[in-house]
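So, can you check?
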Amino acid sequence: MIYWEDVVLDEPRESSERYLLTVENIKGFATEWDPFPPHVDEAAAAKSPIGQLFAAGVHLLSVTIRLSHTISTDETASIAGRGWDNLRFHRPGVAGDELRARVTHVERSPGSRPERGVLVSRFELLNQRDERVISFDANVVMLRREPLTA
């Protein structure tokens, strides 16, 4: 079991799997969850500043989370997520992009209770050219191995 104190900071780890964006999965996700015309219609997408069909941001977030679960790790003492900060969409995800996730634990701070700590992890979705597609910082509450004492 990996507790809050055990987490190694500033050591990037990458997903073992990749996700290939295709016209079909871009349209399929967007049709159900974000039917913005440039996500579902090639003619509308051609008129957009991107110039081609591109994935919805929520699709890319979903891919990031899914791929992050393929990063090898022992079971963690995570309790719950507290939220995401600094969400940025750096570039569009388009058909043909092969995506992978990178997660780097960047900060630890005490939690609201002595037996808890907060871990901040930077999530990045990268394409086949090592360009960042999206990034965000996830805040997770974890159990401490040894509770703080007064």
